[in-house]
Amino acid sequence: MSSAPLRFPALLLAFLAALLLPTDGSAQYLLVPMDDDQANHLRAYGLTYSVIDDGLEAEWLLNYRGGSFLLPDTEGVRREAALRGITVERVDESRLNAIHATIDGANMASVPLETAPRIAVYTPPNTPPWDDAVTLALEYAGVPYETIWDAEVLQGELADYDWLHLHHEDFTGQYSKFFLTYAGTGWLQEEIQRNEEMAARFGFPDVPELKRAVAEEIREYVLSGGFLFAMCSATETLDLALASHSAEITAAYANGRDPHPDASEQMDWDRALAFRGARVETRAAVNAFSDIDTHQVNTPARQPLGAFTLFDFSARIDPIPSMLVQNHESTISDFYGLTTAFAEDRLQSSAIVLARDGERVKYVTGMAGEGSWTFYGGHDPEDPEHQIGDAPTNLDLHPNSPGYRLILNNILFPAARPAPRPT
Amino acid sequence: MPCRLPAFVLVLVLLALAGRAEPALAQVPDGEHLTPAEVVALLVAESTREEGRRELARLSASLPSDRATLWIRLLATGEQVPGATLGALAPVVLATHQGEHEAALDGVTQVMAGFETDETEGVPPPVLALAAEIADRLDPATGAALRERILAHAPEGMEAGEAALRLARYLLEATESAPRGLRILEDLIVAAPDHPIAPEARRLRQEALARGIEPEPADPSGDLP
To answer: What is the number of CB-based contacts under 8 A between chain A and chain B?
Structure first.
């Protein structure tokens, strides 16, 4: 049977269709620019998370326009982008080729994002009188998470999660030495009671022992392949707890025993994740944990804030640190926390510095066993002198916060499958 | 003009309420402003309407922001409707300005009635928007109903975005209507993500979601088995 009679109508229809189709009808991808063109950087992470959580594939274009994302162009994704106020650009095949050509010719890389990580935030089961930047960022970006605390950690539930964030816990069991300023406040008394009950429930003699056991579980989680992200005092105190397994470092009010006069010499830094050789601050009246922190914010030796600068890594050779520093700004105003930044000479040699202000390291990562840890000093990137009792930061006022972006880079990092290193 | 007679009667009533029945004809020196009643008198009379428009612009700029909104809206409406309609609406705005909300609502209802004949295409959306603004002060449900009319008859018009936003805000106040309010907000954002009111719509949406409200399905009948 000849097909000739159909040819003319078919061509005509094709011609008419070409005329009638919208010019962007052939778009297959949505580019989420992460440079200054982006209206809401923080929510862009939540959109990307939701895409991979829905089983769709996404790409993270490292160093391309501030670390942009490439998402499938579906009605649902476009709708979500609009609802969340996220800037997207429709990309057809030819533009996609041009983007990939640009990436191939520069210090850039494309990393597939495949599996949405299961996220846990370690935080007490009440509302403490301070907020947590990571929780704020997750809520604002629309990234789902669950909260866990000591009981869940000790019962082995960390294995249920790919990514763990540590709240502003004091793993030395000294309640962040808050008694110096807040003795008698209801929230501190409640915190003490809750921790003592938890220690008794699991058969620990005191809270420092409870916290050390929790720290050990977290260490095992990392060694087994977990992704750990900690901020503020959780960074420093986690390692102090791990390294003090045979040292008495806590003040007497925490466990009824005086700290050992040579506590610093008794520390076993091989157990720690990030730090080494620190001098432990055992004096109860000094509101600091050790000399790891460079700013000593609540002591007379308080140092002023500056600005920290992100390192520029090779996206192909070092994709993991590259992911962690994707940003539209390279220099960011510093912000205080109980631990604000880390002394470089207190870092283990394997640590990879991601951002620094001179010799003060603000942001650092490293591998441990099958997993990784990332520590980010300070409390709230958009509230440099956040005080206990202050209102939480309203991220609607900071949708482009470069400091908060660093937190959210960590969320997507476990979703990435970097290409093998070139040999 | 279908609305001329009732509007004219209304003008006389409202101007009497305002204590002024004659338009001001003299040019006003720079730096001085006519009173709202004097501006309205200029707008009502066809012969002084153009002068009235200029004075309306000056009046709008001189009033405190909380008092100027309705006059600014009248100014904008006047650029989109026939001069006679502007003349009919001006006393209505004056009545609202003076706190005589029932008289204002009656007045604007009469102005709208003048359009609702077979000879016209219905009430122009700018008039509906102004009427909704006036109605809000006395009866928000009436204001919401007027915005429903804007969305039904002129969904692509200039007034549709603000009408949708304000209707959604009204619907979100009541538990039973909140899902529909949220649906209207979402449709508004998706239809015009870069519209100047989109950020406010997103903020309202976030508040609604935080209250646990879920949007009404886009097509309720489509979800039935």
So the answer is: 18
